[in-house]
Amino acid sequence: MNNPVTDLKPARIEVVDALRGFAILCIMLVHNMEHFDFAYFPEYLPDWLKAIDQVIWDGIFFLFGGKAYSIFALLFGLTFFIQSNRQAQLGKDFSGRFVWRMLLLFLFSILNAAFYQGDILMLYAILALLLIPVSRLNDRMVLWIAAFLMLQPYEWGRFIYVLLHPGFELPPPVSSAYFAQTHQHLAGDSLLALWKGNLTIGRMAVMNWYWENCRVFQTASLFMMGMWLGRNRKFYVNDQNLAFWKKVLWIAVICFVPLYLLKTQAASFLRDGLHEIFSLVVNSWANFAFTLIWVSLFVLVFQLSWGRSWLGKLIPFGKMSLSNYVIQSILGSFIYFGYGLGLYQYTGALMSILIGILMFIVLRAFSVWYMSCHKHGPLESLWHKATWI
Question: How many Å apart are CA 268 and CA 266, to the nearest integer?
């Protein structure tokens, strides 16, 4: 097992809080544009507005789709390291307490999933348990395991099987059949029916979607990379770390371009069945590369005076990331679903993004006020107290 890092400062790393706030903001924009997993395109809108909506839809997904959650996962692994390392410095093993902490997160995920079926916390609570055995390995082994998971071994196994069996046809995604059944409880006027539908059909749809879209292996890999970044103190400010993030930025940019082109052109050089699998894998790699672009850019800009001035405004919002993630699900469900205002019927991408921006402004103001009076956000405080009960 690695020795604990004994010279970490006890103070919070502000760039991490700000980056976490940025991730939640991006997640919020994507969720609003998707009507919180109830994608619906109003047909009565004029053609010029539909054209704008399409541009916004494509742009938001290009910039943030699959990237914001990846940033969140990376920081989740970093947080695990910080907490476990502090306990190691006190001569305590954090493993048992972390299992209990993930059980608590699982309970939070049920609350969140009742309002928003696309909840990611449940997947985090399950996959995070892999960090316990991996944390006992050295840095090199951690990176090797993370790289192996990022390669998507299961999908490559499917690719080889389809390649060796030309007549084989891929079955339709299991998640599609479940998603087709979610319209009734999302559009319905009953809150109880929404909770029941989200926690049954909705959960089956989303968890299968995560598996079918390479999110399981990728998320586990990002957890481990975040832990590695924590071990090596890469979010602390010094010349060596700035050089590290500049190098990461250039490598990520160089890798993203060919990966994106490969994803978009896969159908032109691979037959049916093969290009679907290949595109999924390459898309997960492209999203990872873009994630590194976002993270490295954010860290580098945060070191500039003007960057810290602007990005620092996200710190209170990021400190309350769990609370804001759950609150935006509750607000979003009321705004868009049938039991509430039912705005899914009337809002295209442009209007939904404006609603998302307004939601962010309100929640950030709430975060600034709340954090001026408390050490932790409301759910963060409950989670912290229950963890150490």
Answer: 5
